[in-house]
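Q: What changes when adenosine-5'-triphosphate is included in the input?
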Amino acid sequence: MSQTRSNGSERVVLNVEKLRIHYATPQGEVIAVSDISFDLYEGETLGLVGESGCGKSTTAYGILQLVQPPGYIVHGSIKVDGTEVLDLSEEELRSFRWTGLSLIPQGAMNSLNPTMRVKDQIIDVIEAHEGKQTDKKALRERIYDLFAKVGLPNRIYNMYPHELSGGMKQRVCIAMGVALHPTVVIADEATSALDVVVQRIVAQTLIQVKDEIGVSLIVIGHDMGLLAQIVDRIAVMYAGKMVEIAPVESIYAEPLHPYTKLLIDSIPSIKERKPLRITEGITHDPRNPPSGCIFRLRCPFAWEHCAEVEPLPIQVDRKHEVACHMFDEQFEERRAHAFATTANP
Ligand SMILES: Nc1ncnc2c1ncn2[C@@H]1O[C@H](COP(=O)(O)OP(=O)(O)OP(=O)(O)O)[C@@H](O)[C@H]1O
Ligand SMILES: [Mg+2]
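A: The predicted holo structure follows.
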């Protein structure tokens, strides 16, 4: 899926084309990511959402070439500033990670080394790529500067992770992720496992750092409400497929894919008390996807055609793409009827 950024630069820094990733399990091939394509623009923040198990983390790992066996990339193309990541050697990849692409992994704060001081963990990242730093004072200043960018006090320099709060640990992970000024940062659930106030502060920190350092950002998350406040565009995944991608304001005002509608409808609201909408049904077995549309078994609008033909992304307007047959030109009447009879599917 490719479209223009909602605002700002139109230079593509990351281009993912037909990326497909499987896990080879004894019970069969799990199709975790199924031919997804999208662009990320310079300075943009793209939110990647979808229910648990839909392939968000696998996509992130795929982009960084970090998928672990039994996972493997079946095919695809991942270009960062024109460089094909899949063509890089192991050694080239090592230096490309952190400088070209960097990942703040899911549960990152729990992966900090409990036996190492914060400063040493950050120094490790810097020295692994830039070699031994002899000017210790300059190195400390550089780390203080990183702390300032992510809102951490200098006093934590000599501390161990267990001496920090969850929010502080997450900021240390953000500091490590941006330490080498990568082109693209992927933050996988960077705010999960934090209380709601700290979640918002950490999310805000991510955006500030992004703007200050000038990186492009992919934020993976579940919380559509939180994402709405920080991202430019949202990409919605369902069972390994990208079903819709659009600027945040149009996806909230007018979600097109029935799954996106359900996701947005399930955001709880205090102002307007309504029954909590849950997305009925369970996802199919990822080793045995249904024919045609991936969502048809849970879709309130599905008809025979959806079982026969896989919907391809349709450009509804310059910035909004959706993979749903209701937006095929020949089914316009069906769409009008479905939306008229079910204002709230
Ligand atoms: N090591 C593995 N072996 C087999 N299947 C796996 C493995 N890791 C992930 N999967 C499967 O791949 C699919 C995608 O998983 P992934 O972790 O990418 O989802 P996710 O969207 O990040 O979920 P969450 O929101 O829970 O983090 C799931 O069906 C999962 O069961
Ligand atoms: Mg995940």
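Observations recorded in class: The pocket of adenosine-5'-triphosphate (ligand 1) is lined by residues 23, 25, 30, 32, 50, 52-58, 70-71, 106, 286 (CB under 6 Å).
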